[in-house]
């Protein structure tokens, strides 16, 4: 069974009743809490002068803020694809050795997800200029003009799931960053 914490108000009541001369077991019966909680509340107030929960310690983080910043820098460019590439580079920098699982956990804490690269056509400057020229040429078309036009495109359909998806570590804001996109040929 774990310890159940009582609120600050109950602790204040406990200390007040104790100062008024009540016994620990009498306070426990009156407030309907265990005598251990009463005793701990009194000791906490005597030692620390507060009714609030004390800060709890835990296992310290393996990565210090500076190392975490370096990890964030490593999770860009060519390193985005695999934690097994990032981990040795991070271990070369720091004194403390970390596992790839620790690197994954810290990347998740920093807001990174391991996501599929978005496929976008690779557009050269000339492709962009041609697209803008096409838009300017047809910007005066009415709805009736567009109803007479049919657009068609070649598409590939896969019966089975594709296995060649490229995965990258990225944040939500980096969804369309150049190193998070899988560039496909436009056929020009």
List the helices and strands and how they pair.
Layout: H1 8-19, H2 24-31, H3 35-48, H4 65-74, H5 83-93, H6 100-109, E1 113-116, E2 118-121, H7 125-137, H8 143-147, E3 167-170, E4 181-184
Parallel strand pairs: 2-4
Antiparallel strand pairs: 1-3
Structure commentary:
With 188 residues, the protein is mainly alpha-helical. The protein has 3 domains: 8-48; 65-113; 119-149 and 156-184, no CATH class. The chain is 44% helix and 9% strand. It has helices at 8-19, 24-31, 35-48, 65-74, 83-93, 100-109, 125-137, 143-147; strands at residues 113-116, 118-121, 167-170, 181-184. α1 (8-19) crosses α3 (35-48), α2 (24-31) crosses α3 and α4 crosses α5 (83-93). The protein is elongated, with a radius of gyration of 31 Å. The model has no long low-confidence stretch (mean pLDDT 84).
- Widest sheet: strand ordering: 1-3
Q: Please state the CA-atom Rg, rounded to the nearest Å.
A: 31 Å
Count of structural domains: 3
* Distance from first to last alpha carbon: 69 Å
> What's the overall average pLDDT, rounded?
84
Q: Level of helix content?
A: 40-55%
Q: What profile does the largest beta sheet have?
A: 2 strands, antiparallel
Shape: elongated
* Relative strand content: 5-15%
Low-confidence stretches: none
Can you give me a brief rundown of this structure?
The chain contains eight helices and four strands; from the N terminus they run ααααααββααββ. It is mainly α. The protein is elongated and about 95 Å long.
């Amino acid at each position: 069974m774990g310890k159940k914490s009582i609120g600050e108000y109950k602790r204040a009541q406990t200390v007040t009743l104790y100062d008024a001369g009540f016994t620990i077991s009498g306070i426990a019966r009156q407030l309907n809490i265990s005598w251990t909680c009463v005793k701990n509340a009194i000791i906490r107030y005597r030692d620390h002068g507060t009714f609030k929960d004390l800060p709890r310690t835990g296992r310290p983080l393996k990565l210090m803020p500076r190392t975490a910043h370096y990890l964030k820098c490593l999770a860009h460019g060519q390193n985005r694809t695999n934690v097994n590439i990032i981990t040795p580079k991070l271990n070369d920098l720091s004194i403390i050795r970390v596992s790839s699982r620790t690197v994954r956990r810290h990347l998740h804490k920093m807001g990174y997800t391991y996501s599929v690269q978005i496929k976008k056509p690779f557009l050269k400057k000339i492709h962009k200029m041609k697209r803008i020229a096409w838009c300017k040429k047809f910007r005066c078309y009415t709805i009736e003009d567009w109803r007479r036009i049919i657009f068609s495109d070649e598409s590939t359909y896969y019966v089975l799931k594709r296995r060649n998806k490229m995965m990258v570590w990225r944040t939500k804001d980096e969804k369309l960053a150049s190193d998070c996109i899988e560039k496909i040929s436009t056929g020009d």
